[in-house]
Every structure is written in structure tokens, then in C-alpha cells.
Write a structure and sequence with these properties.
- It is a single chain.
- The chain has three helices and ten strands.
- The longest helix has 29 residues.
- The protein is an alpha+beta fold and 223 residues long.
- The chain is elongated, with a radius of gyration of 56 Å.
- Helix content is 18%, strand content 19%.
- Strand 7 and strand 8 form a beta hairpin.
- It has a six-stranded antiparallel beta sheet with strand order 1-10-9-4-3-2. Strands 5-6-7-8 form a four-stranded antiparallel beta sheet, with no helix packed on it.
């Protein structure tokens, strides 16, 4: 082929088709994961075996025993509880509880066991003081007439002194200081058949009865 301006003849080369670059071989897809044959429990049941997992030998349904056992235990536990409660009620009815109360009449020994003055040996156990003087022997209830506290015997001061609010009483129980409104109470006493002093804690005598003849006979012992 000649060029118009130069007059040169150009030779045409035949066209060659370029082959595409070879591509990497394509990997085959992985087969789907299948349960391990070594673990039959993971294998799906065939259609004809489905529904047989809950059946026993011979195709009989398998019965779950645990709920039945639990119900039996519950019934027995309920019956046992009811019987125990009933037995407790019967025992309580025929053997009622008794309250143990301190005795109201107590023996405190013989008159010769006490010297003149205030004896505090029974303060903790019976809440009383035994006083012996020229008049005779009598017993004072160790209870403050203000608010019921237990006074203490102050031998160095020769008086009973209440630690709560400061009330003071003489050896005969007469109030002379503090807020106590009246003297201490005295208790009824008598000599028992064995010669011991018996104190009746239910018989309380306020000061206004001390001069009454009937009351004095129950308050004082001539010794």
C-alpha cells in the first residue's frame, strides 16, 4: 500500500489473535459437613426410624419414671407432715406447757441466824432484806416506790439508796430523800412448824398499815 505523500509502499502484516492468559484452576467446593459416623447420636434418624427414639423394646412407649417418683415423694412428705402436726397437737392438748414461776412463800432460816441490823443475803434471790432491831424482826421488799428499781444497802451511810433516781430510805424503809413518794413495803412473815421464818411475798404492807394491830402481827416477829 503506497502512502500519498511519500509514495512509499507499506506492507500489511496479518492480524494475530492474542490468546487470553491462563487462569488459575478453580478449586472444587468442599462437601457439606456430615455427622461423624463414630458418633451415631449425631446422625439424623432415617424417615422410617423417626418417632422410634421414644420407644423401647418391641415398640412400646418408654415411660418417664422421675415425675411419678417425685409425685409419690411429695404425697408421702405431705402425709408425714400432717401426721406430725396432728401428733404435736395431741401431745400439746394432753400435756400442756406449765410456766415455772418463783415460789411466793419462801423459808429464809431461823431467827437466830440473823443479827441486829440489815441482812442482804436474800437480795439477789428473793429481792428482800431482813432487818432485826429492838422492835423485832421484819422483812422489807427491795423495790423502790418510785419506779420499781432495786435499791442497794449502803452500810457506810446506814441507808438504802436507789441507783436509778437517788431515792434514799432509812433502815426501817422510811423515805427521806429523792423522788420516792412513800416508804418501802414490808412483807408478811410467820414462823413455820419447823421454827423457820416463812416469808409470804404476796402479802405487801404499805407504811399506813404498820400501826394496825392485825397488820403488825403479820409483819413483826418478836425475837
Amino acid at each position: 500500500m503506497s502512502h500519498p505523500s511519500t509514495g512509499e509502499t507499506a506492507t500489511l502484516l496479518p492480524e494475530t489473535k492474542s490468546s487470553p492468559a491462563p487462569s488459575a484452576p478453580r478449586a472444587d467446593p468442599l462437601p457439606p459437613a456430615t455427622p461423624d459416623a463414630a458418633h451415631p447420636a449425631l446422625l439424623p434418624h432415617p424417615p422410617e426410624e423417626r418417632g422410634r427414639a421414644d420407644r423401647g423394646v418391641g415398640g412400646e412407649p418408654v415411660r418417664l419414671e422421675f415425675p411419678l417418683i417425685w409425685r409419690r415423694n411429695f404425697v408421702w412428705a405431705s402425709l408425714t407432715g400432717m401426721l406430725a402436726a396432728g401428733l404435736a397437737m395431741v401431745v400439746h392438748f394432753f400435756f400442756p406447757r406449765t410456766l415455772t414461776e418463783p415460789p411466793t412463800r419462801v423459808k429464809i432460816g431461823y431467827p437466830s441466824d440473823y443479827g441486829y441490823g440489815v441482812d442482804t443475803r436474800w437480795q439477789s434471790k428473793h429481792r428482800i432484806w431482813v432487818v432485826k432491831n429492838s422492835t423485832g424482826l421484819f422483812v422489807i421488799l427491795a423495790r423502790c416506790t418510785h419506779l420499781g428499781c432495786t435499791p442497794d444497802w449502803k452500810e457506810s451511810e446506814n441507808k438504802f439508796k436507789c441507783p436509778c433516781h437517788g431515792s434514799g430510805f432509812t433502815t426501817e424503809g422510811i423515805n427521806f430523800e429523792g423522788p420516792a413518794p412513800q416508804p418501802l413495803f414490808r412483807l408478811g412473815i410467820e414462823l413455820g412448824a419447823d421454827g423457820q421464818i416463812v416469808v409470804d411475798k404476796l402479802k405487801e404492807f404499805p407504811a399506813k398499815t404498820w400501826n394496825d394491830e392485825a397488820a403488825r402481827a403479820q409483819i413483826f416477829l418478836k425475837v
